[in-house]
Design a protein that fits this description.
Elements: H1 4-9, E1 17-20, E2 24-28, E3 36-42, H2 57-74, E4 81-84, H3 88-91, E5 100-104
Antiparallel strand pairs: 1-2, 2-3, 3-5, 4-5
The protein binds adenosine monophosphate.
Adenosine monophosphate is lined by residues 4, 15, 27, 29-31, 39, 86, 92-95.
Length: 113
């Protein structure tokens, strides 16, 4: 089932987009947990890492390189940042379209989401 992130991909609802290419989109989190908090998603609808298959291997590998590229573009790479993906209930996943949080721009506490 489609989520609010699909609507952002389709430009049906606005988002502060920081990166877009044919396969990926990145935008500022609406409820930032750090000075820089960007969500990176593939345009392909995959529920989460638990639902990914072998077919997604290349896409998800490329996604990691895109995350690193975006972090460099945001100017946070050298000082450092954190990448998180939440999976299902215990992981705290709220939006069931696979996404990776980029958190940075400041020293992060160990327990930050
Ligand atoms: P998760 O808990 O990992 O599923 O994270 C979902 C994230 O999506 C949360 O950090 C929300 O603040 C963020 N979020 C939800 N709706 C939007 C939106 N319309 N635009 C930007 N971020 C959103």
């Amino acid at each position: 089932m489609s989520t609010i992130f699909k609507k952002i991909i389709d430009k049906e609802i606005p988002a502060n987009i920081v990166y877009e290419d044919e396969d990926f989109l990145a935008f500022n989190d609406i409820n930032p947990q750090a000075k820089v908090h960007v969500l990176v998603i593939p345009k392909k609808e995959i529920r989460n890492l638990d639902a990914a298959t072998e077919e997604d291997a290349l896409l998800l590998g490329r996604l990691q390189l895109v995350i690193a590229k975006i972090a460099r573009q945001l100017g946070i790479a050298e000082e450092g940042y954190r990448v998180i993906t939440n999976i299902n209930g215990n992981g705290g996943q709220e939006v069931f379209h696979i996404h990776y949080h980029i958190l940075g721009g400041e020293k992060l506490p160990v327990t930050l989401k």
